[in-house]
């Protein structure tokens, strides 16, 4: 009991201190809001004291009373004392303790905990109050700013109202000005219309007077110009003038004024007078043009009169009539020019009369176009030339049809085409004979003529299309003129001239194919070798025919002919020439003979019986023919490529040509492969046995030698000298029988075989240091010999052997690694290098096995 009293007094003093502290803080704040915010969270000293007294009163009871309550009461008190007070989170005020919590306090620890909670809550409240009071100056400054801006807002409102008034006034003023401008513009338009009407009336009066005066003195140019001016007058004015005249006549008739009525009848309206004058001018100009055309046709007039009246038709709005009349005139001139030429066709014996007449026709058309094109474009306008071109083309079709019919009749062309087709069918069935009825020379002459026909026609077509495109503009054209210009390309493609040429070109391709194939087969059949030449006559004859036919196709200027002939030429080279060479090479493969050297040295001619030498000579000629054929094929392809791609510039045409020329290049490569195969076959059949026998001597030569043996080899070489002599006897006689390219290829094949066989034999031999030096000397001698035999390099074929020799020349096994690293490109593999090192008898196997490359 005595110990509880100090605690109670201490609690009361702390409560009084906090109450006085809170009261001081409250009194220091002048804001009612702050005071009201503080009020719910403060405790007065009396309440704090009473609470403490009431809460501690039960604990200060006598011990007897406490003990008389029994064990249940003591347990409840102990549980209440043990119940903790929840701590307050830092910075966050906790709610004030309720009355039940205060009443449940049973010991001093709970009192202290409650006091700590309340103190923490007071600290947080003080911080909030300080923050609110710290913002007072800023808020008051903003309020003062708002009070300062209030008068200015009034000024801004007044200025805005004044600006609105100014803008409204300006808008009304602009509307008034715009209205007056529109009125002035309307008045100006009316004035202009009035002036135009006055001018048109004056022009109408001048036209009436001028056209009558011009017709009276025969000045048709002036009359046409007056009519042109009349046609350009506003139709509304003409209608008004006509209506005025009609109204005047009606008034005179209604008033019964016979004199006025007769006067109006005698003096017609200007419109009626001009309409009558227009009719007279049109009729007169047409008659004058017809008279001028008749005079020129009879040889009494000049084309200047034609031009004089032709340029007047556009002035009187008769464009199509003028072009039609001019077209009829120039077509008549063309017909008149060709009539005499047709009469000369039967008397002309040079075989090219039809071609000359066709050239005259195209020249006449071109001269006509050149003469009248500038006149039409100047007086009629751009685009009207196509009308004249169409009329001329119709006449050209008729005349060209006559010319080509004469050509086909005089040459009996259609019959020959049928005979050619029949003979080609027999050739395909392998039933053709040398006594065919058609002479290729006659076909050759007609092919030349048809190629020239095609060339002239192609040039003419390009000329017409080019002039139809000149002067195209976006200006207005008559519907018929526009249609003629747009359809001119299709018109030219479908014209009778091109239809006839298309038929003629188709027959040309058939006849050219016959001529080409017949001539090539004849050249192959008559193939003959002249002594002293490397090739036979057949190769030159075949490619002469092919070059002649393809060049003739190029001269035609027709891409379809050129493509067809390139395709036929390639087919003949691949199917006929290559097949013939392949069959002859297969049938004339030479075989090994015991006296081979003597037979080569005999140098027998091509036509000598069936001896071995003649057989080999024949085979050499066939090899040369194959090599020359491959070379000629590539040369023919390049020549055709250069000429055709420069002649035909359209992308579609060049693509077709490039595809066909690529096929011809492939044919040349196939001939090259045939040559390589035949060359290897000749080597294996004729040269290999003797060369292999000579190489066998290498296996019997020892390369484990001493100084004496090395010196003896310098005096009497056991391998290289005999081997070179054998090669000299085998290969050198062929030098004069083969082309340079074939001879170089043969030497390359021999060198390839020799190096491979020597390498195989070397890996079965043993060497010492002097033996390696001896092998290096032998190899250098062989390399020099083969290099001197051919113009092409053969050193690359000896590369592996030279690398083997370089390894055999090493002084120590340990030098192999440095030697391996010193060269960038090795033809030998690491395992082969170790195998070569193992050939040295003076190198230990253990040291060789330890080498790491």
TrEMBL record:
Q: GO:BP terms for this protein?
A: protein transport
The record's annotation in InterPro entries points to: COG4, COG4_C, COG4_M, COG4_N
- Quote a single Gene Ontology cellular component term: Golgi membrane
Q: Does the keyword Membrane apply?
A: yes
Region called Disordered, residue ranges: 1-72
The subcellular location is: Golgi apparatus membrane
Q: How does it sit in the membrane?
A: Peripheral membrane protein
Q: Name one Pfam family in it.
A: COG4_C
Alphabetically ordered keywords of this record: Golgi apparatus, Membrane, Protein transport, Transport
COG4 transport protein middle alpha-helical bundle domain residues are 274-586
Biased composition (Low complexity) is annotated at 7-72
Q: Which PANTHER family match?
A: CONSERVED OLIGOMERIC GOLGI COMPLEX SUBUNIT 4
Give the family this protein belongs to, as stated in its UniProt record: Belongs to the COG4 family.
Protein name in UniProt: Conserved oligomeric Golgi complex subunit 4
Record organism: Capsaspora owczarzaki (strain ATCC 30864)
